[in-house]
Specification:
By secondary structure, the chain is of the alpha/beta class. The chain folds into 4 domains: 132 residues, Rossmann fold (3-Layer(aba) Sandwich); 163 residues, Rossmann fold (3-Layer(aba) Sandwich), CATH 3.40.50; 76 residues, Helicase, Ruva Protein, domain 3, CATH 1.10.8; 62 residues, Arc Repressor Mutant, subunit A. The chain has 20 helices and 16 strands. The strands form 5 sheets. The chain has a 5-stranded parallel beta sheet with strand order 2-1-3-6-7, with helices on both faces. A 5-stranded parallel beta sheet has the order 9-12-15-8-16. Helix 19 crosses helix 20. The longest helix is centred in the N-terminal third of the chain and has 31 residues. The two termini are 52 Å apart. The structure holds adenosine-5'-triphosphate (ATP) and magnesium ion. The site of magnesium ion has 3 residues, from helix 7.
Length: 462
């Protein structure tokens, strides 16, 4: 295999040929051109990896050719050659995108090193492009046709260019992070960093150093000074996810950054100024955390300048068919499967499912279907079976109801029933007490008392 295809454009035939021979000996393939026209023809029509371009050609200027190349999308490296090299031409060539400049007479060593490095650069650049495409490919389009989603998209457009603080609420998997990124990308800060901090995933004693950084020796284990996320996000956006999990201590510090746009590193003695837009998200009911004294009221009002609520999927059924279509196509493509449209009755199954894990659950299920079920077996019965399986836990709850109804004394039976019913309702509202109370027609405080009396607690789900 050749190490790469090199185009040599020079009107002095003996130079062209001898460069070509040297390169061929080293395992490269070469293409030769003796004037501007031939060079141009080769550059646009031959698959080459690197071009050596003489500046002075009988029928044109090598820099001109370079300029033309810059306007088209080219993915090879250009090295200029000249016998009358001046610094200025070299600088101009570099500005036009040339990788390097070789002065005649060309030294053999310099030639080989330049060609080798130039080719390596091309490989790196191509890898970068591929990586970027990979990231793009893994990103999902924003799908949503329900009025609520259309509203949300409009709101993103309006709010993004401002610096307004945004608080995004919504159940797990509704798309909070996706909305946060969209706001950043449509803002004037799009070219600056978007830094995500998952407050729930960081132990309390580490979160301050994570957010604000620390100086060397600030605590045991701080062997080196480290910048925090607020510093890293300077000029851009910081996304504080699961904000409700922050301790009151940390909340006080975050409040100060919001008020003064400055802070100190842990163990630091001077203030650091930053210009950061703050976007936060939570899946809990912050007002009730405020009421319970677990979340600072002043911080809540500061963060909640522009509230974004993303409704759960079960409240916007119109979005299910387009999402299902989108993800079937996406994963079929990714796993190289053919995919036929779902029948209407199959789609009904998707619409009827309660989706407690929202879009993330839907996406994962469809990926599983594409991986596990051969295309020709993907039919209604198969899908129905799959949905029944994923609803198993609630069936077990039904047998619990039987047990309550068919045994025990009146009083126990009634409170057991109460417990089961309230637990179920809370669960279906993702443990949002306010919402559940509203549904049940109870005062929130009354529901809290009931929960306490019946020993109902939100389970810890990791
Ligand atoms: N409107 C949408 N259209 C298409 N895909 C979406 C949409 N909203 C969310 N998704 C996809 O669903 C998944 C979950 O979204 P995301 O991580 O933004 O949710 P989240 O609310 O932050 O979840 P969690 O509370 O679990 O952190 C992601 O893979 C995302 O790409
Ligand atoms: Mg998230």
């Amino acid at each position: 295999m050749s190490k790469g295809k090199i185009l040599i454009v020079d009107d002095e035939k003996n130079i062209t040929k001898s460069i070509s021979n040297i390169l061929k000996r080293e395992g490269y393939e070469t293409v030769l051109a003796y004037n501007y026209e031939e060079g141009k023809e080769a550059v646009f029509n031959k698959p080459i990896d690197l071009a050596l371009l003489d500046i002075l050609l009988p029928d044109g200027d090598g820099l001109e050719l370079l300029k033309e190349l810059a306007e088209k999308k080219r993915n090879f490296t250009v090295v200029m050659m000249s016998g009358h090299g001046t610094i200025e031409t070299a600088v101009e060539a570099t500005k036009l995108g040339a990788y390097d400049f070789l002065e005649k007479p060309i030294s053999l060593d310099k030639l080989l090193i330049t060609v080798e490095n130039g080719l390596r650069l091309k490989v790196l650049e191509n890898e970068n492009v591929k990586l970027r495409e990979e990231v793009e490919k893994n990103r999902d389009d924003f799908i949503g046709e329900s009025p609520a989603m259309k509203d949300l998209m409009r709101k993103i457009e309006t709010v993004a260019p401002t610096n307004g603080k945004v608080l995004i609420t919504g159940e797990n998997g509704t798309g909070k992070e996706m909305v946060a990124r969209a706001i950043h990308e449509k803002s004037k800060r799009a070219d600056a960093p978007f830094i995500k901090v998952n407050c729930a995933a960081i132990p309390n004693e580490l979160i301050e150093s994570e957010l604000f950084g620390h100086e060397k020796g600030a605590f045991t284990g701080a062997h080196q000074a480290k910048a925090g996320k607020f510093e890293l996000a300077n000029g851009g956006t910081i996304f504080l996810d699961e904000i409700a999990d922050m301790s009151l201590d940390t909340q006080a510090k975050v409040l100060r950054v919001l008020q003064e746009q400055e802070f100190e590193r842990v163990g630091g003695t001077y203030s650091i100024q930053v210009d950061v837009r703050v976007i936060t998200a939570t899946n809990t009911d912050l007002p009730s955390r405020v009421e319970d004294g677990k979340f600072r009221e002043d911080l809540f009002y500061r963060l909640n300048v522009i509230p974004f609520h993303i409704p759960p999927l079960r409240e916007r059924l119109e979005d299910i068919p387009p999402l299902v279509k989108y993800y079937f196509e996406k994963f079929a493509n990714e796993y190289d499967r053919a995919f036929k449209e779902l029948s209407e009755s199959a789609m009904e199954l998707f619409i009827a499912h309660p989706w407690p894990g929202n879009i993330r659950e839907l996406k994962n299920l469809i990926e599983r279907i594409i991986i596990m079920i051969p295309e020709d077996q993907l039919n209604f019965d198969m899908l129905e079976e799959l949905f029944v399986q994923s609803r198993m836990p609630s069936r077990r709850d039904d047998s619990g109801l039987d047990k309550i109804l068919l045994s025990g004394q009146y009083r126990d039976s009634v409170s057991n029933f109460e417990r089961l019913m309230i637990e179920r309702r809370l669960k279906s509202n993702s443990w949002n007490v306010t919402q559940t109370a509203k549904e049940l027609g109870l005062e929130r405080s009354h529901l809290y008392k009931k929960m306490k009396g019946l020993g109902i607690q939100k389970p810890d789900i990791g």
